[in-house]
Amino acid sequence: NDEGLNTGGMGTYSPAPFLTDAELESVGRQILEPWLRGCRAEGIDFRGLLYPGVMLTASGPKVLEFNARFGDPETQVYLTRLRNDLAELLLASAEGRLAGMRLEWSPEAAVCVVMASGGYPGSHAKGFPIHGLAEAGAIPGGKVFHAGTTRKDGQVLTSGGRVLGVTALGSDLRTARNRAYEAVGKICFERVHFRNDIAAKALARARIVGAALRVDSTRAGQGIAGGGAEAAPSRPSDWARPLSNCCCRSRKGRLRAAAELLSAMEIGSDRIRRSRSSWLVADVIAWRSWPITASP
User: Fold this and answer.
1) Distance of CA 112 to CAs 64, 118, 261, Å?
2) Contact, 221 vs 245, CB < 8 A?
3) 240-244, 261-265, 287-291: lowest mean pLDDT where?
4) Model's pTM, two decimal places?
């Protein structure tokens, strides 16, 4: 439920299937460009890596943190998909040649699940042997990144809160997620804990869009979010509208459409029966309050 103490991040996925080019440009325009102007004004020639942690909200992108380093566990999924030689990119940055470099990304998706020590982010015990690392690394597309580990007498032991970043590539997000959790299942150490819902919400959103399209097909040429012959919305957040203007004109039809959407979100039909109007969707499809790529 995304509740509890704040952590440094318990999982990530890439790409974010609902993040548009326009939203990325908005982040650059509202956050990065002002920062660059400030650097120029103060005579700062920054060469290196800038990692802004950004949350997308209904009122625009908001900065959570600014770091001059790679982010963890975001880096695991980015570098797994990066086809360039990272050393060449870093050298080009240091020498001022980065503008001439072209980043190349794998079309595959990547998912990282953090395996943490019991008690994290609070106090936690250390020094437990970690088993199954070789088996996890043998999963197709799998890679295990060490974070809070140490080696003693030939054994790998836990030595921190976030212990491992278990990462996998796949042809799509679902495949990558399945592989990542398959690799997680190969690893064990005492008091281990991890989230079991990394990337689940992104997959649920895709299911909801599919459900909305199926509902829309019951009345050809009309969009579910509007009564005209509109093109289907280009991203899931465009579906986050009450169904009062749905192509289904009757209340019964609108509730049937809502049932289809809510079923995709695995929300019980009792919520539908209790609702007095089609505005119920506004209460349960809270797109912009969901995390984008990282899970706390």
Assistant:
1) 21, 19, 28
2) no
3) 287-291
4) 0.71
